[in-house]
Amino acid sequence: MSSAVVRTAVVASVGAFLLSASWAMSTPVMLVPDEASHTIRAVSLWQGDLLGDRFELVEEGPPRVEAVNFAVTVPAGYVDLPTQTACFQDPVVSGGCAPTLQARPGQARIGTSAGAYQPLWYVLLGAPSRVLPPVPAIYAARLLQALVGAVFVGLSIGLAARLAGRAGVAVALLGLTPTAVWLLGAVNPNGIEIAAASTLWLGLLALVDRPDSRVVAVVVGVAGTAVAWARPFSPLITAGILAAVGLLTLDRRRGRAAWASRPARWAVTAVVVAIGTSSAWSLASGALDTFIGTPDPGLTPGVAAMRSWSSTQDRLEQMVGRFGLLDIRLPGDVAWLWAAAVLVVALAVVTRITARQAGVLVAITTATVALPVLAESFTAQEYGLTWQGRYSMPVAYGVLAVLVWAVGHGRAGDRPAAPRRRDLLWALPPALVLPAVHVLAYLHVMTRVSVGPDRPLTAYLSAPGFSPPGPDAALLVTLAAGVLTLLATLLPAADRTIVLPDPAALPVATR
C-alpha cells in the first residue's frame, strides 16, 4: 500500500478509537443489548468453561418468555450482572440506579444465552477479568473491543482510499453510524462483526483490484476470519459477502487474474476455511438453538411477515442511532439525516454506475430489507419477532462498498489518475452529518442516562446522577476529537492514491 493509504488508515483508526472509547467509558455497565450475556460468556472462558451446560428456562407472562441458555462458571462478583438492567426499565430514572458490582470470593454458576457462541472474541474480552474487579474489567473489555474494532475501521477507510481516493473515503465514512461506534465500545461481538465486515467488503474489492498484494490478502484473511467467527449466523453473512463481491467484480478476465495470484487464492481459502470451521462450531455446540424469545404459536408466516415488514423503518433507524436497551431514540428525525447523506452519495454515483453494479446494489439493498422479514416469518411462532437493526449492518455495509467500487470503476472502467476538483464535493455529506449526528447522539444519550429525559442536552455536565469513570467534559472532548480526526481522512492526500491501472486490462500472469 502507498504511504498515503497507510496514513489514511492510521488516522481513521485513531479517530474511530477515540469515538468508540468515549462511548465505552460513558455508557453505564450493561446498558447495551445482551451485554450481560456476552460478558458472562467472556468471563467464563477464563474460568475454564469452553461450553456451558444447556438448560431451558420458561417465565410465565404475560408475555410468556422461553429461553435456551447455558450454565457457566464465573467469579462470584459477576452473579448480579443480569439484574443490572432491571432499574433501566423505568424511562425516567438515571443510569446510576443500578447497584455497583462488588468483587466477592469464590465462584458461582450462572446462565447466559451466549454460552455456546464462538469463543474467538470472548477469549480477548474476558482477559481483564483475570486481574481486575468486575466493573474495571468490564470497562477494560470494552476498550479492548474498541481498539480492535478501530483497527478494522481504519483498514476499511484505508482500503476505500486505495480504491477511489477521497470520494471512496467519503462514502466509507458513512458506515460509521453512532450505533456502529457505540457497539464497538461494548462487550458484544456484533460490534466487531460490523467493523470487520466493512474491512472484508472493501478488502475483497481491493484484492480483485490488485490480486498480487500480499498485504491486502492478509487483511482479507484476518477480516474474513473475524466476521465468520463473530456469532452463530456470521458464517452465512461471510459467505454472502464473498458471493456479492464475486457478482460485482468478477468477469472471465478478472477471474483468471485472481486465480493466477497466490495471495488471492490464499486469502479466499482462509475465508472459506473460517466459514467452514465456524459453521462446524455452531452446529456442534448447539449455538444455533440458543435463544430468548416470546413465542406466538398463533402467528402464521404471512401475518409474521407483514408485522416484520412494518418494523423495517424502525430497524433502519436502529442502524443509525438507537441506544440503551433500544429505548433511547435520537430526537426528531435526526437519524434520517444520515440516510439522506447516503442517498445523496448514491445519487451522485448514478452517473458513473454500470448496469451490473446497479444490479448488485439493488440486490444488497433488497437483502438488507428482506432478510429480517424472511427470517421472522418462519421463526416468529417459536421465538417471536426478535430481529434488531444491528443484525443487518454487516450486510447493509455492502451498499457503501458497491458505491466505493462504482466511484473507482464506473463506466468504461473510469479510474482517474489525478485528483479532480469536483471530487471535493464528495466530502460534504460526511463532513456535515458526522459532527452533527455523533455529537448530538452522545449528548442526548448522556443526558438521558445521567439526569433523565426531557432535559437540556448539556444538563448532565453539571447535574448529579450517573457518573462515568472519566470526567464528563473530558469524554465529550474525546468524542469530538474522534469525529474531527475521522474527518481529517478527507484531506486531499487521499486523492493521490488513485494511481493503479485496472487489472482487467493487464496480461494474466502464469504461475
Task: Please characterize this protein's 3D structure.
With 511 residues, the chain is of the alpha+beta class. It contains 17 helices and six strands. The protein has helices at residues 3-26, 35-45, 120-126, 134-173, 178-184, 189-209, 214-228, 234-249, 252-260, 262-285, 301-310, 312-321, 334-349, 355-383, 393-408, 428-451, 472-487; strands at residues 53-59, 65-75, 107-112, 291-293, 322-323, 328-329. The strands form two sheets. Strands 1, 2, 3 and 4 form a four-stranded antiparallel sheet that branches. Strands 5-6 form a two-stranded antiparallel sheet. Strand 1 (53-59) and strand 2 (65-75) form a beta hairpin. The longest helix has 40 residues, at 134-173. The model is unreliable at 412-419 and 494-511 (pLDDT under 50).
Supply database-style keywords.
511 residues; four-stranded antiparallel β-sheet; 17 helices; 58% helix; globular
Q: How many strands, what sense, and barrel or not for the largest sheet? A: 4 strands, antiparallel
Number of strands: 6
Q: Portion of residues in helices?
A: 55-70%
Query: Outline, from the CA principal axes?
Result: globular
Computed Rg: 23 Å
Mean pLDDT: 87
Low-confidence stretches: 412-419, 494-511
Count of discrete alpha- or pi-helical segments spanning 4 or more residues: 17
Q: Could you give the distance between the termini?
A: 23 Å
Q: Report the portion of residues in β strands.
A: 5-15%
Task: Indicate the structural class.
Answer: alpha+beta
Q: Give the topology string: H per helix, E per strand.
A: HHEEEHHHHHHHHEHHEEHHHHH
